[in-house]
Amino acid sequence: MTTTSPPPPPAVEARHLRKVFPGRHGTTAVDDVSFTLRSGASLGVVGESGSGKTTVSRMLTGLERPTSGEVFLSGAPAPADRIHRARAVQMVFQDPYASLDPRQTVGAGLLELLRLHEPDRTRHHGRAAELLDQVGLDDRIAASRPGQLSGGQRQRVAIARALVPGPAVLVLDEAVSALDVSVQAQVLGLLADLREQLAVSYVFVTHDLAVVQQITDEILVMHRGRVVEHGPTDRVLSAPEHPYTRGLLDAVPREGWRPGTAGAMTAPWKGTG
User: What pLDDT is attached to residue 230?
Assistant: First the structure.
């Protein structure tokens, strides 16, 4: 008699997340948001500015504490300790230049993180070179400072830094919106490859539905702090059920884009962008 192994626990489970920012009357940024992300899957969180999507991402990574509700990572309550939380979930921000120390070389920044997360010091330099190669950068980049790099190279460095502790989840907050279209395609291709190689799960926060179509399995649509639609990417984009989702689709600015036409990424992601 053969037995089947139980499925892995969800990479992320958000239960009734609520965030109220203090003030005279209080501002409810997120109101009763729940979702589950399968291990190795990719979830797009979309909505206009002020919809609450970035606040959700910050609660997942521990940068904001929920007013109420819980976050579970790999089936366990998300660690309150910052170091342990960082080893489970990492964030890649929109502006890599703002998230990198302009005074520090790429290599020094990676080694600093490796000293924090990798106990075997003999592996630090080799691991730094591996991380740069993993994101399509030559190890000579290690001697450069962020100001000497292109926007695409800086974002690749930011991704390499996020991979240092070996997280199961990457939260990408508008991580390609500051890049031009050709470089954006390369970085999306890189993220697709990393997901396959590392079995990492993504929470991809963006306003760009064309990007969501290429990189996610499911979509969570937020409006005024609440989830108004959630389902498989192809279904939500081709047959949206909520009027707000239909409005987002009608506003897609890219000429020639239409739901259901995304194929495999064909642009090579290794490059100088």
Answer: 97
